[in-house]
Design brief:
binds heme C, Cytochrome Bc1 Complex, Chain D, domain 2, 3 domains
Amino acid sequence: MPEELLVSPPGSEGVAPTVTAPAATEEPVHSVSPVRWMVQLGAAGLGVCAVSLGLFYATARGVIHRGDGPVAAVATPRVDPMAHVVSLERGLGLYAAQCASCHGPQGLGDGPQAEALTPRPRNFESGWFKLGSTRSGLPTDDDVARTIRHGMLPAAMPGWPHLSDGEVKSLALAVRHLAIEGRVADKLRRSPGFAREKALELARAALEPGPVIAMPPKPVTIDLARGKVFYESNCAACHDPDGRGKLREDLVDNDENPIAARDFTSGVFKGGGSLDDIAMRIVRGMPGSPMPGNPAIAADDLWSTAAYVKAFGAAGEAGRR
Ligand code: HEC
Ligand code: HEC
């Protein structure tokens, strides 16, 4: 229940958030009849529920716009008194409330909403993460936190711009924990005699993100014509010469579900639409989808192709006006 997150009292670190009557004990209540006071309290409680449910619904449905820029569209300003608290326990509580309906209670991608969705909500244990910044393809906790904040539109994965840093970082810990525990459970299912400690060690090592990619420096001038040449020989087969990604109908993801190459004219990117974001996707690819990595790409080709891709978005924007 999302409303719990809005009213959990400070100092309740490490315990599951509970709904408490805000500041009820500090108010002098002698002048108000107990019945009236209860009614007011009840009405206030309902108000909090309604606002937060509405906010949750609007965010989940993408009604509230989530862009790259600062978040301006959230209806109620929200201050989390525990913004500095990062803990696995906190993350798991938030996960159960906000994420399990799609990703399943154990993060196996099998929540009640999952069946209807393409692409499927990720099974974290699979180790496929489309977004991240490392050569290994496995995300750092910061990468996961960024994905949670930003969401993965146009897929069903919503962004969570209204959560505090402490909440988002705690959720990232929960995602890693579920991925590791999922692998351990899988190992022990297949080899029942295997030592849990050893399985845990193997799972941790297998999901270790390793070093972050050092991006090649941007050239002083970015040559769009060079980007066009690279794009046409390496990208257009999937993304189409016009960047719309409509022509290929045979692409499937690792779950064997059909997936379209991104329509660049929409300007919507799962991993963000800045030049640096697009360049990172080109170098690293998007594991779990057919989008390949280009780990050995030359700096000039990389930045000019990223700029060429970004320019489709600007053209799409102009076309919609
Ligand atoms: C409405 C369903 C839905 C909800 C709710 C949801 N997700 Fe997702 N999530 C998805 C889908 C669908 C994908 C797969 C997107 C794709 O592959 O393009 C995904 C992907 C992810 C990924 C994989 C990122 C990557 O790099 O591939 C992570 C991590 C994730 N979600 C975490 C979370 C967390 C944490 C929450 C709760 C705060 C959450 N999700 C809530 C649907 C959901
Ligand atoms: C084999 C087909 C294929 C090729 C070749 C390919 N892509 Fe992709 N690309 C995809 C698919 C499929 C997606 C969508 C993945 C998803 O939504 O999960 C994608 C997504 C992307 C995205 C979106 C990233 C985001 O954050 O949403 C970018 C940018 C991109 N590709 C750039 C390129 C560039 C540049 C090239 C050439 C250097 C290229 N792609 C080559 C299939 C391909």
